[in-house]
Design a protein that fits this description.
alpha/beta, Rossmann fold, two-stranded parallel ribbon, 10 helices, 15% strand
Length: 333
């Protein structure tokens, strides 16, 4: 396939966990990939290092552009220049706990950033297909479980509220302007590329560090908090499948299984041959003002319409993450 005939994808948030896996996935499928890097962020592109340092890929099939979601002029210019076939909107402040501390910027990036992007897309000569990464935080504390695409929303965090706006505005623009715009309602999804401020990465890294004698204890908050934790590469595969459908629609991507932080700790410490109870302590300072609860997704629609299924179990994923942390810490020890 020549580059002129290759499909073109545009990714916001390409340096994040999902963005980096999506770049890998699309490049393997022969896409030309354009990604947005925030000017105000650090130059850390470690998740893209294997691509960024490959002269056969970087600036030949993978192109990075400086732009911010709150800078519509620059972003619009890049979209007109690259003329993508597909846009994957993954960027935004995505840490739920942190959203209580930086509520205004969370809502501006997550909610208004999505609206700005939709305005740009509908002005393009050939509007691309859009995938918007929504979140299970829409549901907050649902009264029914599992949650489907039709479950009512009642977010309990600034992040959840911002995602509710963004998700609804995508459907409004889909109906009003006939855009091929889709929401993926993503439940928690993890990998060795997860940010260090997320509990899964913190626990896996802590278990590896304790095994290596680099620390003595791991401090956590609510051990009973339950989440539907999936595997990030599975989630990005679902993103692509969503945009290949003839009709735009919304899909839940989840495993349908709940695990507690206690389960997470047990699996991570078991992966390095340790008893988690001997090394974990609880600190109330890590508790959130309000905690989403009973969040477990029903992926039936994605399974039946897209043929999407998870490829990793919870136990396999946590073991992989912990081994990756152990290997990385061993090299730097």
């Amino acid at each position: 396939m020549s580059l002129s005939a290759a499909p073109v994808a545009f990714i916001t948030g390409i340096t994040g966990q999902d963005g980096s896996y999506l770049a890998d996935f699309l490049l393997e499928k022969g896409y030309v990939v354009h990604g947005v890097v925030r000017r105000t962020s650090s130059l850390d592109r470690s998740r893209l290092g294997h691509l960024y340092t490959d002269p056969e890929i970087h600036n030949r099939r993978l192109f990075l552009h400086y732009a911010d979601l709150d800078d519509p002029t620059t972003l619009r210019r890049i979209l007109f220049k690259t003329a993508p076939d597909e846009v994957y909107h993954l960027a935004g402040q995505s840490h739920v706990g942190l959203s209580f501390e930086i509520a205004e910027s969370t809502c501006d990036l997550t909610a208004m950033g999505t609206l700005r992007l939709l305005e740009m897309i509908r002005d393009l000569p050939k509007p691309p297909r859009l995938f918007h990464a929504s979140s299970s935080e829409l549901f907050g504390k649902p009264t029914v479980a599992p949650q489907t695409e039709a479950t009512p929303w009642q977010p309990v965090s600034p992040y959840g509220a911002a995602k509710a706006f963004a998700t609804r505005i995508v459907t409004i623009y889909r109906d009003a302007y006939r855009l091929h715009a889709c929401n993926g309602i993503l439940f928690n999804h993890e990998s060795p590329r997860r940010g260090e401020n997320f509990v899964t990465r913190k626990v896996c890294r802590g278990a590896a560090a304790i095994k290596l004698g680099l620390q003595d204890k791991l401090t956590l908050g609510n051990l009973d908090a339950l989440r539907d934790w999936g595997y990030a590469p599975d989630t990005v595969r679902g993103m692509w499948l969503t945009l290949q459908q003839p009709e735009a629609d919304d899909y839940v991507f989840a495993t349908g299984q709940l695990h507690s932080v206690r389960d997470l700790a047990a699996q991570a410490f078991a992966a390095v041959g340790l008893d988690w109870e001997a090394h974990v302590e609880v600190n109330a300072a890590f508790l959130r003002p309000t905690e989403a609860a009973n969040l477990v997704g029903d992926p039936t629609k994605a399974r039946t319409r897209l043929g999407w299924t998870p490829s990793r179990t919870f136990e396999e994923m946590i073991a992989e993450m912990t081994r990756a942390e152990y290997d990385a810490l061993s090299k730097s020890k």
